[in-house]
Amino acid sequence: MKIASDWKEYEILDMANGEKLERWGNIILIRPDPQIIWKNKTFPSLWEKANARYNRSNTGGGSWQSLKSTPAMWQISYKNLKFNIKQMGFKHTGLFPEQAVNWDWMINKIKDAKREINVLNLFAYTGGATVACSSAGAKVVHVDSSKGMTTWAKENAIASGLKDNPIRYIVDDVVKFVQREIRRGNKYDAIIMDPPSYGRGANGEVWKFEDNIYDLVNLCTQVLSDNPLFFLINSYTTGISSTVLKNILNITVAKSHKGRVTAGEIGLPMESSELILPCGIYGRWEK
What we know:
- This protein is an alpha/beta fold.
- The protein is built from seven helices and 17 strands.
- Strands 1-16-17-15-12-9-10-11 form an eight-stranded mixed beta sheet, sandwiched between helices. The chain has a five-stranded mixed beta sheet with strand order 2-3-4-5-6, with no helix packed on it.
- Strand 10, helix 3 (147-159) and strand 11 form a beta-alpha-beta unit.
């Protein structure tokens, strides 16, 4: 497992009873997590410091419960990157901090390449990977079907001092966008995708991970440059093994490009303990 252990402004303070107690800068949140199936709190007194808790509803979804004063938006930093944090519906904050392990990896790959790198970021959300790659000097095309998330990504780039960097923001269904890029003959040295388990595109197109991930990765091989640098797949889909992502990359990308395929879990450490929270899986092809 690759662990995002370099954070200064984010940390898990405790975990128990299906919830995690997290510090986001100066704000402490309680959010549900299905991986936390043990019952004993390690630091019970810390839970009293929470600003807000996300409570799940028995009928689906849920809502935030205010416990102390919490700003509508605030910022946290990861190294030289800055991100805007908000309490969103369905427990999210606009950032997945465990992805820092992938940001570091991509930044190092891009810098070590010592050439211009064109990156395609699919299902790009609020732009964590976009900001990371841009900060390393890459040109980035950021694609997401949500106009709101794309606006948020622009705000994150501005916060990180990347306003004038070459980033294109596209609000579109990712499959249709890639198909058009194939017809246009556009190529990319690196591709990132963080697909949801289930979702809908800009015009209502249905996405289901198990049904569509292989076809999308295979499609994306047609927009890889002749000298690609990396291909990264992230997944939070329950029941999918990281070995599945490794198999897909071996069948598709590695079939045409020599390189190394690896896969595994990513996670977050809990402060002052030996506990690690599993947070998803990755598959990587790299030059």
